């Protein structure tokens, strides 16, 4: 690994809505059961934002926690990137709303839409801004209110998703930092996971609302097979760029989509379960927020220590995927 000064995470924060929707609650809403959900997904409960909480509200709370952890103020920020597929509105960018509420008046602001890979994409993007000298630091946020685009009458999808936000502050560090990254996309499989209506292809109408086309649609079986293969490869490629292998991983922080996917990825990579961080049981799939919230929790619980090789690994709609290797 190069001895040149790296870009690293200097602060972390997260926010989870208070409301808990447990599997027993879903049993009263759709034809499902706790046993069915748990065995197929590993999820026991998920957090649901209140009606008056938008994605930017979740993002702001996570951002403030990350800034406090980094010892910075909003006025210090040069860049804000929000990774989300549930923006407050089509425009302006949710990052601009976060900027307004934080008072980060000198920051460049924009959103990234890469679904469940969004935080990893935003992390790599922000790293380039700092490497190039355009910015000295960056606030990266993964935030989602997936409950707003979930069809609560569809037993196959409504059991999967939850709301939340996580954030980190990036800057140059004296030791450790991001040591490798790998991103990929495959638009040929864009139809496997999407929200059909509301854009220029299919503008909102009474018909699209009646047909439930403003909710998440997914082909789970196909995604499962692709996720296992692509997530394992992404981590391996990122590690190989710096002469490492899966054996060198101290902890893998994967996108929390489905426990069966995560266990299959671990098996394919030859990783023992003790080297993987899981929190899907508590929160479900929070899309772009999942990986960063898991990272926050792993740090807080002392699962990550100085010098560890940490791999963030995500896969999502697009299709998009990415892995980032960090020396903590």
Query: What does the overall shape look like?
Result: globular
Please write the string of helix (H) and strand (E) elements.
EEHHEHEHEHEEEEHEHEHHHEE
Largest sheet: 5 strands, mixed
If classified by CATH, what would the architecture of the largest domain be?
Answer: 3-Layer(aba) Sandwich
* CATH superfamily placement of the largest domain: Thiolase/Chalcone synthase
Q: Strand order, main sheet: write it out.
A: 1-7-6-4-5
What does this structure look like?
Residues 239-328 form the Beta-ketoacyl-[acyl-carrier-protein] synthase III C-terminal domain. It catalyses: malonyl-[ACP] + acetyl-CoA + H(+) = 3-oxobutanoyl-[ACP] + CO2 + CoA. InterPro entries: ACP_syn_III_C, ACP_syn_III_N, FabH, Thiolase-like. Homodimer. Belongs to the thiolase-like superfamily. FabH family. There is one protein chain. With 328 residues, this protein is of the alpha/beta class. It folds into two domains: 6-175, 3-Layer(aba) Sandwich (Peroxisomal Thiolase, Chain A, domain 1), CATH 3.40.47.10; 179-327, Thiolase/Chalcone synthase (Peroxisomal Thiolase, Chain A, domain 1), CATH 3.40.47. It is 32% helix and 25% strand. The protein has ten helices and 13 strands. The protein has helices spanning 23-26, 34-41, 55-70, 94-102, 118-131, 206-210, 220-240, 259-269, 280-283, 288-300; strands spanning 6-15, 19-22, 45-48, 79-83, 108-112, 137-145, 163-173, 177-185, 193-194, 217-218, 251-254, 309-316, 320-327. A five-stranded mixed sheet has the order 1-7-6-4-5, sandwiched between helices. It is globular. It starts with 5 loop residues before the first strand and ends with a strand.
């Amino acid at each position: 690994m190069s001895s040149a000064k790296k870009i690293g995470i200097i602060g972390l924060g997260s926010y989870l809505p208070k409301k808990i929707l447990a599997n027993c609650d879903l049993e009263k809403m759709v034809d499902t059961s706790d046993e069915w959900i748990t065995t197929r997904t590993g999820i026991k409960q998920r957090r649901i934002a209140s009606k008056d909480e938008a994605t930017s509200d979740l993002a702001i709370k996570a951002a403030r926690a990350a800034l406090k952890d980094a010892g910075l103020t909003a006025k210090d920020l040069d860049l804000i990137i929000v990774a989300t597929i549930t923006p407050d509105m089509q425009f302006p960018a949710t990052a601009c709303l976060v900027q307004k509420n934080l008072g980060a008046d000198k920051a460049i602001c924009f959103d990234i839409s890469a679904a469940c890979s969004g935080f990893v994409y935003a992390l790599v993007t922000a790293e380039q801004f700092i490497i190039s000298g355009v910015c000295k630091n960056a606030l990266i946020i993964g935030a989602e209110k997936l409950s707003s685009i979930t069809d609560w009458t569809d037993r196959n999808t409504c059991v999967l998703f939850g709301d939340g936000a996580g954030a980190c502050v990036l800057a140059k560090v004296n030791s450790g930092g991001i040591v490798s990254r790998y991103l990929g996309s495959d638009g040929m499989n864009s139809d496997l996971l999407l929200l059909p209506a509301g854009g220029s292809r299919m503008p909102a109408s009474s018909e699209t609302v009646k047909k439930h086309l403003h909710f998440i649609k997914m082909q789970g079986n196909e995604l499962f097979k692709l996720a296992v293969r692509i997530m394992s490869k992404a981590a391996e490629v990122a590690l190989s760029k710096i002469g490492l292998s899966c054996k060198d991983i101290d902890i893998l922080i994967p996108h929390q989509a489905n426990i069966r996917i995560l266990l299959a990825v671990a098996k394919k990579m030859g990783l023992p379960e003790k080297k993987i961080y899981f929190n899907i049981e508590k929160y479900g799939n929070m899309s772009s927020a999942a990986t960063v919230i898991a990272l926050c929790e792993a740090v807080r619980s002392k699962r990550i220590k100085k010098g560890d090789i940490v791999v963030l690994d995500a896969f999502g709609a697009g299709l998009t995927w990415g892995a980032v290797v960090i020396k903590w």
